[in-house]
Amino acid sequence: MANGNINGVNVDQLFSTINAIKENPGLAKFKFRAKNQWINGGQNRTSIKEFYGAGREDTTRIKTFVFDNDEPEVLLGQDNGANPVEFVLHALAGCLTTSLVYHAAAQGIKIDAVESRFEGDLDLRGFLGMNEDVRNGYQNIRVTFKIKADAPEEKLKELCELAQKRSPVFDVVTNGVPVKVQLANG
Amino acid sequence: MANGNINGVNVDQLFSTINAIKENPGLAKFKFRAKNQWINGGQNRTSIKEFYGAGREDTTRIKTFVFDNDEPEVLLGQDNGANPVEFVLHALAGCLTTSLVYHAAAQGIKIDAVESRFEGDLDLRGFLGMNEDVRNGYQNIRVTFKIKADAPEEKLKELCELAQKRSPVFDVVTNGVPVKVQLANG
After folding, report:
1. Residue-wise burial string across B25-54, b where 16 or more C-beta atoms lie within 10 A, e elsewhere
2. Looking at the predicted structure, is the pLDDT value of residue B137 above 90?
3. Alpha-carbon distance A47 to A64, whole Å?
4. Is B110 touching A (CB cutoff 8 A)?
5. For B23-57, how does the pLDDT look when each residue is reduced to its tens digit (9 = 90+)?
6. Do B46 and A88 count as a contact with CB atoms less than 8 A apart?
7. In whole angstroms, how large is the CA radius of gyration of chain B?
């Protein structure tokens, strides 16, 4: 049904990727990476470039993406960047949107517009170690999507649910991931 | 013990924040926000500015921070930005680093340098819905920290553990958060 380019997604390439992975599941394995360096106070800088995927170290990415975290004044920073918990919302927003758009493309559904808003509740007493009953991270995140597409309301709801069902960052943020931290000094 | 400015952190302000929250725990409640708009294919744009905290809507932040997500070629994008799962690593890096630096400052420990590396394993078969036994998100994340500070190795280990114990994004990524998504069309 779907073919060519839909929503800016090359659907032929999408299906040939799926077929290649069916024959060789190892092609589906990716390793994403980031390096970070502290600058001062709440400011630190991440560089993102290299990744492994489709059976090899990537050689196509030319740019290094660089992002600074910082904190606003009230959180003792200089406001030279969004803060880490705000970047979580950015990652979640991007992943839900891309999941929605790609899976719509796979179904041959043309999307006109997608907008979304994110809000998360955080109680500083967790970070500050003031109350062990208060968690450090977000207690809740609320998301609102608006989708314009050539499809009935029922189909848009289905796409919104499919985005949640398939999004890697939605999975990470809702279910958690084992993180192993080591100190490698010297 | 600690006072003035340590590691770029105003420690007097830090302790007066803690005292203010002791008297009025409601001041610890923050709401962070993001808006996102789809551009094309795997590219979408997040704007971050407003937040609520310390009992009021913030009025100090002047800049709107804008970040694009995109995907590399092998994931059918144009590589106009880091991708959402890479931004998760950026958020995690920033939050562990800031947690480490702030809590060191609170203890009066001067940090000289912090560097960290992050790598996460992701199997595309989850996102593609090809195998229900494969999760969509990261299966594991590995983190390596290097810390230079005027403190013995044992103290650096303790700081590295304290960062994990207190970091909001570490909590989000390891433990998960309830996320409620609604479609608000029309």
Report:
1. eebbbbbbbbbbebbebbbbbbbbbbbebb
2. yes
3. 6
4. no
5. 999 999 999 999 999 999 999 999 999 999 999 99
6. no
7. 20
Could you tell me which chain A residue has the CA closest to the CA of B142?
A: A180
The 8-class DSSP code of residue B120 comes to E
Q: With contacts defined as CB-CB under 8 Å, which chain B residues touch A130? A: 18, 21-22, 28
Please report where in the chains the tokens 């796409």 appear, as a residue: A159
Least Cα distance to A148 among A1, A3, A4, A7 occurs for A7
Mean pLDDT within B65-82: 98
Give one word for B79, left, alpha or beta, with left for phi > 0 and alpha for psi -120 to 50. Answer: left
* Residue, of B1 and B164, whose pLDDT is higher: B164
CA distances from A155 to A105, A151, A173, A176 (A): 13, 6, 25, 29
Q: Are strands B51-53 and A5-6 parallel, antiparallel or unpaired?
A: unpaired
Query: What is the CB-side half-sphere exposure of residue A177 using CA atoms within 13 A?
Result: 29
Judged on CB neighbours under 10 Å (0-12, 13-18, 19+), A157 is middle
Calculate the average pLDDT of chain A. 96
Q: Residue A82: which of B45, B63, B65, B50 has the closest Cα?
A: B65
Please write the tens of the pLDDT for every residue from B106-127. 999 999 999 999 999 999 999 9
pLDDT of A3: 63
Q: Is A170 on the interface with B (CB under 8 A)?
A: yes
- A133-164 pLDDT tens trace: 999 999 999 999 999 998 999 999 999 999 99
Using a CB–CB cutoff of 8 Å, tell me whether A2 touches chain B.
Answer: no
Contact A61, A30 (CB under 8 A): no
Write down the H helix ranges in chain B. 11-23, 84-106, 124-127, 153-166, 168-175
The burial class, CB within 10 Å (0-12 / 13-18 / 19+), for A29 is middle
Q: Which residues pair with A43 in a beta bridge?
A: A40
Tell me the per-residue pLDDT of A95-108, one tens digit each, with 9 for 90 and over. Answer: 999 999 999 999 99
